[in-house]
Structures are given as structure tokens and as C-alpha cells.
Write a structure and sequence with these properties.
heterodimer; A: about 240 residues; alpha/beta; Rossmann fold; 6-stranded mixed sheet; 4-stranded antiparallel sheet; about 35% helix; B: about 300 residues; mainly alpha; 14 helices; globular
């Protein structure tokens, strides 16, 4: 991965919720077009790392640089417009808007890299549901819609927070498939995930988190050779 | 579907235009009042129904438009066709200024801030005697001769309100309207999807204020006078009740609410003084039994 230009660099960030510190000096970098996974049990700081990058809970210490620009503490809409799309874990679509409206509402003419046609090519299920209200979709469909909606903001980097959560195995398989297509489109992706199969299928590197710090960095090959290196961290 | 509704609207406007043929001054007087409040309530619904921002001070902009138009017309003797647009520009500027402070806060805090600004505007109107006439109000706000009969003023109001409603309909069904709904449903989410939420809310606030100002200007012409009451919080409450009663989840709801409330109050006041009591009962019944208002009730019936 050494030859990829570094797009995102997270430099020893510490993030707090009120007085309690969640992240302790978390650092990592992401190359252009790379898929990186943050793995670990619930509550280790994966989502907080994502939220810190997305501008929702800005870190108190440290810096986040995106394509050379310091984005630490930037308002979330500015982070989004700079090319970072966040898909949170509690997939919540705009329930009273139709699928098409959910997509259209975030589209901006100056950022028209993604069109509805292109989105519907990748998510054909959504094309059939375009006039249905977001609130009437199944869990899997809603998850697809939240990712599709984020794509409409023309991100160069996707932050996917637990996209497999609450989905049936078949839906997870389909999700892995779709994310692989996005990867092939050249998007950089940070994936926070507990589903090992999804992580192994998609990422090039994984950072294992524990109690707000990165404990280890592994490649899928290393994990496939000796699975205990990963499960050791995931077990209670 | 929305187009069939537009056709229905055009039909209603066409029928209303025939109203002067009835020759009834009372009917025209009542209809003019309803039209003005239809516009006032619909402007508030852009904030409540679409942006999810409940304003307790919307009458402030109604009064600014009303006083602005009255003062330009009466004190400075500027012709109506200039005075009215000038009053609107003034309302728009003040809405944007007040709005830029209000949209910094959300939910209850936003509502309280609008109430505070509403009362501030009322206090200015009340105290600035040399300009506004204080609690004596401004009397003899004369319309030009081409609209000084009940019939001609009704037709003028119908024209202005129809155009304004069309403009609001376009706003509500535009990308701006959808963005407002997205912010209403989840402001944080709309934010990280790239929407500058405060700016969009400010645009909505300014549009709502400006159209309330237009209703206020018509109201001052209609009554040939304007009083500080028009900025008082009870006026804000009344228009809020129209929106709730008619149904805030529908574009046409506030229209039904304004019509129902004005007509009911007229007829009730003819037989009893207990209109506020009846209003309270109507409001309670609305909130408990059909929280989506009359429009919601009709929609549910239609689906059945």
C-alpha cells in the first residue's frame, strides 16, 4: 500500500463525550482507494472514531487531515462537502420522503458525479422502490438507501459504520457485494465492523481497537493464517 | 396527484372570483378576511409543517408588513403599488435578521426566542408613538380608489393571495421544501449529508416572514387601520391554532383551518359570548381525536 497517496491521516486524536474520554491518541492513515477496517467489540471506540472524522464529535486533541487539508473541528456539512460521506450504524432514512426524494434531497448540482441512474445501476432493488416511502422499506433496503443517499453527496471516502448490523445473512452477502462494487469504483472506505467475514472479504488492512486505542494492525492474510490473532481481541 | 389539486385550486379561485355577483357585502367582507388569514396561516405552516420549527411570534411579521405598508401609504403618501413591495422588502430584511438569531437554537428554545422577538416587535410598535400611533394605532389607511369598494378589494385580495399561495406551493414542493422536511426529520443527519441546515432554515424563516408580512399589508388595507394587537402574542397563537386545526402535515391544511376558525367564530359570536370556551373545546378535540387536523381527517376518510 506504500505507493498509494495518503488521503486521510488521523493524527493522535483524543475524543470525549462530556467528561469521559473515549479515544486515546488514535492514529492511522488511509491510502487512496484503500479499504481499511476498524474492528473490535462494542464500545471500543469504532463509531466514535468515525464520528470524529465526520465532524459530529470533534476530537479535543490531535488532528485529522483529508487530502492535505486540516478538517479537525469542521462542521459536519463542510466535512461532507469536502468529500467524506458518513453512513451511521442506526440506519435512519427520511421516513416520510420517497426513495427518490431521499436521494434527491442531498444532491447538489456542483457535485454531480453520482446520478440517480448510476445509483440505481449499483442498487437495482432501489430503482423498483423509487416511489415508496423510506419508512416502508425493509432493514436491508434501508441500509442500501442510506449508503446510496451518501453516495449522492459524491464522496471520495466512505465511512461505513457497521453496515451488517441487524441484517440477515443473505442481506449481508448482498451488502458485501455492493461494497465491493464501490471499492472497484475507486472509493476509499473505512469500515467499522464486527462481522469478520465481511471484513476479510473487503479490506486490505484492519486496525483492532480496544478501550479507545488501536491495539494491533493485521492483514487478511495474517488472520486467515492464524485466526486466533483476531478472535483473541473479539472474545469477551 | 399534486396537479389535480392545483386544478381544484384553480376551480375554487374561479368560483370565488364570481362572488361579487352575489351582491352581498357581508359575504365579501368575510371572504376577504378568510383569504388574508389563509395566506397568514400557510406562511406559518412553511415553518411548522415543512421546517418543523414552531414559531410563537409569527404575528410580528404580520404586523411589520401591516405597519410598513400603512406608514408608507398614509404618512409618506407613497402609492400602494410601491408601498406594498417596499413593505415586503422591509419585512424580508427584518425576518432574515431575526431569523438568523432564532435558527441558532432548536425546538423549545427556538419557540421561546420567536415569542421573545414577537413581543419585542410589539413593544416597539406600542412605544414608537410618533411613527406607529402607539396604542391608538394607525387610522385612515386609505386604499387607492381602484380598490376601495368591498368587491374590488375582494378581487384584489383574491389575486394577491392566489399568486402568493402559488409561490408558497412551489416553495413547498421544490428541492428546498424536501430539504426542509429532511432537516425536520433529522437535523444532524441532514448536516452530515452536506446540508447547511441553519442556512436552509433561515431561508424558510425569511420566506415565511415575508408572506406573513404580505398578509399583514392586506389586513391593514382591509381594515383601513392597524393596531398593536396585530403583533401581540395572541395573534401569533390564533394563527398557530388555525394551522393545528387545519392540519400541519398538509399544504392545504392551514387553509381549511383559517376558513373553519373565522367562519365558526363569526357564527358563534352572533349567538353567544363564549367563543373562547368553544375554541378551547375545539382545540382539545383536535389534539386528542384528530391530531393531523381537519385535512388529516379528510385524507384518512378518503383512503378508507
Amino acid at each position: 500500500m506504500a505507493d498509494l497517496p495518503i488521503d486521510l491521516s488521523v493524527e493522535s486524536i483524543s475524543t470525549f463525550y462530556g467528561l469521559s474520554q473515549i479515544l486515546f491518541d488514535v492514529s492511522f492513515t488511509l491510502g487512496r482507494g484503500e479499504v481499511l477496517a476498524l474492528v473490535g467489540r462494542n464500545g471500543v471506540g469504532k463509531s466514535t472514531t468515525m464520528r470524529s472524522i465526520a465532524g459530529l464529535t470533534p476530537p479535543k486533541k490531535g488532528r485529522i487531515k483529508w487530502r492535505g487539508q486540516d478538517i479537525t473541528g469542521l462542521a459536519s456539512h463542510r466535512v461532507c462537502r469536502s468529500g467524506i460521506g458518513f453512513v451511521p450504524e442506526d440506519r435512519r432514512v427520511f421516513p416520510e420522503l420517497t426513495v427518490w426524494e431521499n436521494l434527491d434531497v442531498v444532491w447538489r448540482p456542483e457535485n454531480s458525479e453520482w446520478t440517480e441512474e448510476r445509483i440505481f445501476d449499483i442498487f437495482p432493488d432501489l430503482a423498483e422502490l423509487r416511489h415508496r416511502n423510506g419508512g416502508h422499506l425493509s432493514g436491508g433496503q434501508q441500509q442500501m438507501l442510506t449508503i446510496a443517499r451518501t453516495l449522492m453527496t459524491s464522496p471520495k471516502l466512505l465511512l461505513l459504520d457497521e453496515p451488517s448490523e441487524g441484517l440477515a445473512p443473505l442481506a449481508i452477502e448482498r451488502m458485501v457485494n455492493r461494497i465491493a462494487v464501490l471499492k472497484a469504483e475507486g472509493l476509499s472506505i473505512v469500515l467499522a465492523e464486527q462481522n469478520t467475514e465481511m471484513v476479510l472479504a473487503l479490506c486490505e488492512r484492519m486496525h483492532v481497537m480496544e478501550k479507545g486505542v488501536i491495539r494491533a494492525t493485521l492483514t487478511p492474510e495474517e488472520v486467515q493464517a492464524d485466526e486466533s490473532r483476531l478472535t483473541h481481541f473479539l472474545m469477551l | 396527484m399534486p396537479h389535480s389539486r392545483l386544478l381544484l385550486g384553480a376551480g375554487i379561485v374561479g368560483l370565488l372570483a364570481l362572488l361579487p355577483l352575489s351582491g352581498s357585502t357581508y359575504l365579501m367582507y368575510l371572504s376577504t378576511q378568510v383569504l388574508i388569514f389563509v395566506l397568514f396561516a400557510t406562511s406559518l405552516n412553511i415553518l411548522i409543517g415543512y421546517a418543523g420549527l414552531v414559531s410563537f411570534g409569527h404575528a410580528a411579521f404580520f404586523a411589520i408588513g401591516g405597519y410598513g405598508c400603512a406608514i408608507l401609504l398614509r404618512t409618506y403618501e407613497i402609492p400602494l403599488l410601491l408601498a406594498m413591495p417596499a413593505a415586503l422588502v422591509m419585512t424580508a430584511i427584518l425576518s432574515a435578521l431575526i431569523g438568523s438569531l432564532c435558527v441558532r437554537l432548536t425546538s423549545y428554545y427556538f419557540s421561546m426566542l420567536t415569542l421573545a422577538f414577537g413581543q419585542l416587535i410589539w413593544a416597539v410598535v406600542f412605544k414608537w408613538r410618533s411613527m406607529t400611533g402607539g396604542d391608538d394605532g394607525l387610522l385612515r389607511v386609505d386604499s387607492p380608489s381602484w380598490i376601495d369598494t368591498p368587491a374590488s378589494f375582494f378581487i384584489f385580495t383574491l389575486l394577491v393571495v392566489t399568486l402568493a399561495m402559488l409561490a408558497l406551493w412551489i416553495v413547498a414542493h421544490s428541492p428546498l421544501g424536501r430539504t426542509l422536511m429532511a432537516i425536520r426529520e433529522n437535523q444532524v443527519r441532514a448536516g452530515f449529508l452536506g446540508v447547511h441546515t441553519r442556512r436552509v432554515q433561515l431561508v424558510a424563516f425569511t420566506i415565511a416572514g415575508t408572506f406573513a408580512g404580505l398578509a399583514g399589508a392586506l389586513f391593514a388595507l382591509f381594515n383601513r387601520s392597524i393596531f398593536p394587537d396585530s403583533a401581540w402574542w395572541l395573534q401569533s397563537a390564533e394563527v398557530l391554532i388555525m394551522v393545528v386545526l387545519g392540519g400541519m402535515n398538509s399544504f392545504f391544511g392551514p387553509m381549511v383551518g383559517a376558513l373553519t376558525l373565522i367562519v365558526l367564530s363569526r357564527f358563534t359570536l352572533e349567538v353567544t359570548d363564549y367563543w373562547p370556551g368553544l375554541l378551547a373545546i375545539i382545540l382539545l378535540a383536535t389534539l386528542f381525536f384528530f391530531p393531523n387536523g381537519i385535512a388529516g381527517l379528510l385524507k384518512a376518510k378518503g383512503k378508507r
